[in-house]
Amino acid sequence: MTLLQNPRQLFVKALLASGFALVLLAIMTVMADRVSAHGYVESPASRAILCKDGVNTDCGSIIYEPQSLEAPKGFPAAGPADGKIASAGGAFPKLDEQSSTRWSKVALSGGQQTFTWKFTANHATTSFRYFITKANWNPNTPLTRAQFESTPFCTVNYGGAQPPMSYSHTCNVPTDRSGYHVILAVWDIDNTVNAFYNAIDVQLSGTSNGDQTPPTVPGNLNVTNVTATSAAVSWSASTDNVGVAGYRIFNGATQIGSTTGALSYNLSSLSANTTYNITVRAYDAAGNVSGASSIVSFTTSNISGPDTIAPTAPGGLHVMGSATQNSVPLMWSASTDNVGVTGYQIFRGTTLVTTVSGSSLEYLVTGLSANTTYTFTVRAIDAAGNVSAASNAITVTTPSAPTTYPAWSSTQVYFGGNKVTYNGVNYEAKWWTLGNIPGTPAGDVWKVIP
């Protein structure tokens, strides 16, 4: 038997279906926007990266993108709202669940500690700042700015430059408190209104003066699999009176990598036909650092023959900030190449807009028209002229230009429905008028056009 549905039932079903489609579209839009993901604190491990690594559980979608904790900058005066600080504004609400037992904690001592950021897009940077919860904070209530010290215990100014894809620096963690605390790491982007926020759950043991014994020197340093741009480094474990927290890898006096316990490290983005002098040092939770291992030197291979290998496609192309009526700010993640990326080509549709240097990961496209849809892609190039595949394409519609009408005149007779512009505001006459100034008590004949 066939069941007949009345028109009202059909209408309701259609409405529900269209509503679901709109919700799905909104979700897809949000997820696409999250591709503009950029960096996280790798060590001491942040709440988000411990979620990705499976140490923290029941974390929600942050496990797929721990680098996405982006919100307006200006903390503590501005930034994410109270109760949404750990999630950088609420996009990942699971991170805002707060209790003394909810999150795994990193053992840390007061005193000098190394903080390492891992970037997927290394934006021009103003500074890195670190805040810590007050001595009497309540770990069983949602995180609020009132629970943090108002002044960062460490600020590393970066002057608008771009850090490397992995960047480490030292800070003196306060020695006047112990037990469970939260460190809020803030990465302030230089040329946008946004920053990145990472909550780090730590178990503090107070002053580091109690442990002043450094680990033993790492041994048996070895380098293998040397190519023109990479090499593998390995060593044997150090020992410590309390415990080894990790290892730092140096080229000469410059730190070029670190691990949190692993006894090997893959060096990448090296220069061809270049000599490197590698050493490794161990460190413990109190910040004590061992002596340097023996030096192992190696020279990357020289690339023979013509370079026919194109760079990889740029990733994560997105609008960084907001489009205006005639401009769109673009940003993308770096490409890699067997020799080196020398530039990036920015395309509007199939038209080459410009080429920027290989160290630039952003560009402001100008000269656009209002209320117009544009599609952009980026390609990487190397010195041999090899061109990568296109990045992901993004489509942007510039905002509409504001509507303007003839300027109001004190000698013009206006009738109901006539429209004018006065002092940058648009008005419509309600009835006949002459000489009544819009926007004044005497000009109540005029109504503002939204």
- CATH architecture label of the largest domain: Distorted Sandwich
End-to-end distance? 56 Å
Q: Which runs of at least 5 residues are low in confidence (pLDDT < 50)?
A: 1-5, 20-37
Under CATH, the topology of the largest domain can be stated as: Coagulation Factor XIII, Chain A, domain 1
Helix content: under 10%
- Major sheet, described briefly? 6 strands, mixed
Mind telling me the CATH class of the largest domain?
Mainly Beta
CATH level-4 homologous superfamily of the largest domain: chitin-binding protein cbp21
As for the number of domains, it is: 4
**Number of helices, counting only DSSP H or I runs of 4 residues or more:** 2
Structural class of the secondary elements?
mainly beta
Total strands: 28
Would you tell me the overall average pLDDT?
86
Strand proportion, as a percent range, falls in 35-45%
Q: Provide the succession of SSEs.
A: HEHEEEEEEEEEEEEEEEEEEEEEEEEEEE
The global form is: flat
Give the radius of gyration. Answer: 29 Å
Subcellular location: Secreted
Pfam families: CBM_5_12, fn3, LPMO_10
GO molecular function: carbohydrate binding; hydrolase activity, hydrolyzing O-glycosyl compounds
Domain Fibronectin type-III: 217-303, 313-401
